[in-house]
Structure formats: C-alpha cells, structure tokens
Amino acid sequence: xxxxxxxxxxxxxxxxxxxxxxxxxxxxxxxxxxxxxxxxxxxxxxxxxxxxxxxxxxxxxxxxxxxxxxxxxxxxxxxxxxxxxxxxxxxxxxxxxxxxxxxxxxxxxxxxxxxxxxxxxxxxxxxxxxxxxxxxxxxxxxxxxxxxxxxxxxxxxxxxxxxxxxxxxxxxxxxxxxxxxxxxxxxxxxxxxxxxxxxxxxxxxxxxxxxxxxxxxxxxxxxxxxxxxxxxxxxxxxxxxxxxxxxxxxxxxxxxxxxxxxxxxxxxxxxxxxxxxxxxxxxxxxxxxxxxxxxxxxxxxxxxxxxxxxxxxxxxxxxxxxxxxxxxxxxxxxxxxxxxxxxxxxxxxxxxxxxxxxxxxxxxxxxxxxxxxxxxxxxxxxxxx
Length: 385
Description:
The chain is mostly helical and 385 residues long. It has helices spanning 2-21, 23-30, 34-61, 64-80, 88-117, 122-149, 153-170, 181-187, 194-221, 223-230, 235-255, 265-285, 290-301, 304-313, 329-345, 347-362, 376-383, and strands at residues 323-324, 327-328. A hairpin with a 2-residue loop joins β1 and β2.
C-alpha cells in the first residue's frame, strides 16, 4: 500500500507544478498578464483547500477504497478534458476541480499514514512525501518535452491518464475500515473539546501551513517570470529553478530521516528561519544563480509539510509530539513538568516518599522510615532506631 501512496504523491507533485511550468504557454494562449496567470495557481490552491477540508470527515465515516477511487477519478476527469480553445474561466474551473481531487487524496493518504504509524508517523510521512517532490522535479521536464514536441495540453492529459491508472490500482487494494465508534472516541480522549480548544491546538500549525504553501506556490508559479523579468534569464532557467526548489524539498525530506533528535514544533521553527534567510539572501543579492537560491529554500523547508501532517494528524490531534525511543516526546515532557509541580506543592510528602523508596531498595525494614515526618526524632526514639 505504501507503494500506491508514493505513486499517488508523485502524480500529486506533477500537478502542483504544471501551471507554473506552463505559465508562458498559458499566458500566450489566453493572453494573460502576470496577475491573471497567478489566478490559475489561486484556483488550484482553492480547490486543493476545499478537498483537504472535505476529506477529513469522509475518512472517518466512509470506506476508504471508494474515497480514493473517487478522488483520483475527479482529478483525472478534470485534466483529461482540457482543450486549447478553452476560455480563461473554463481553465479556472478545470484547475480548481483538479485541485479538489488531489486535495482529497492528499489528505486521505496523510490520514491513513497517521492512523497506521500514530506518534511515529513523522519519518514515514517525510519519506512518502518525497514522492511529491520527485513528481514536482519531473514536472517541468515533462512540460518542456511536450512543448518541444507538440501542444502543452498533452502534458495535462498525460497526468490525467496517470490518475486514471492510479484509480484502477486503488480498486485492487484492501484498505482498512474506518475505526469503530468506541475506538475513534478513545483516540480523541486527549484532544481539546469544543471549537475554542480545537482552534487553540491546531491554529499554530495552520499558520505555519499557510506560510509554507504560500512560499511553495509562489516559487513554483512565479519562477519563470522572476527569472525572465527580474534577472534577465531564459524561460528554461526559470523552469530549472522550479526543479531545483523541489530537489531541495526532496533532499530535506530524505535528510530529515537521519536526524538523531526528535521532530517537533521546534523543528518547524528552525526550518522556517533557515528558509527565510536563504530566500532573502538570494533575492537581495539578485545573483544569476537562481537555482541555488531555490534549492537552498527547498532544502530548509523539506520537513515542514509532512511534519505538520504527522503532528496534527496523530491520535492527539496536534496536542502530542513526535515519538522518540517508543514514547511520545510531549508526554514525557508533560510528566516531568507535572512531577516538578508536585514537588513544589508538597515537598515534605515527596521527600518522605523518595526516602522510603531508597530504603526499600536497600532492603531496610519498612518500620525504619514509615514515620519520617515532622515528629521523626520522637518516632525513631520510640522505635529504638
């Protein structure tokens, strides 16, 4: 099943970069300026967002195989039916429906991985999301090949046919059933109740995801016009910058698997700071090696999206942390904090309990330390200790 998930992410990655890779061809065919070209990316992102939101409740309530097949077929139908003579409004509709389909199966895969690996999902999620980066790296090369040999429409239809093949593959797989009612609510025992609690738990990750998707979409969609208009480079250099950015994401997602420490919110903060520094340095110097800037930014951001999915999609719904040494890191930290609070509130009781444990381990009789409180001197005298 992981092979199916990885192949689906490869197709997902190709779809993400197609509007950017074909930005010049779409602008010429439809007579678009830069602002209207960006609307195609907005339509893709809007459809993807709707699909992501819709997939969550569906995943918990309905059989998974029909959901995967339906989402792949939606994306396939939208891409297989594009034509060169379509209006700009029709292109917006097709791109939005495509985004809706890929958003559905993107969330379905993320939820399935989080459900299977639970708190240990961060690294498997990063490895599977590497498939999306491979697809995004191959997307500009595929687009260039089709433009050189014919119409750019063929690249959309080819990826649509690939989604149809994935739907046929999904029909042959056995997906786990949705969790039973009792088990589902047991997993939600630690999730904050109510809209306010849920918002407080998920909002920080939503803001990070908003920033990440904004950077990813901007670098993908506007790489070609940035290379040509701002740096005076060719369109091919802009397309290669897209591949460089996604190559950096791939290196980051694979490289994070070798990190010796736990992955958590601090990892997200460090990744964002490094990416901002790399991007600001590259844009401010305006050097001609645009691929290097894009690669460094992608490398810093590689772990962000799969780690967000692992943290939010785990059984604690964003309240927990990544797993280290078989135990959730956040649980271990919470227990340490609770122990420190108990020692501050009840110092005498904790000291007596710790002393009792030490004496018990040393093999001393219980009567020796059972009365070690404020009247310990009198107790020891009466007991002959």
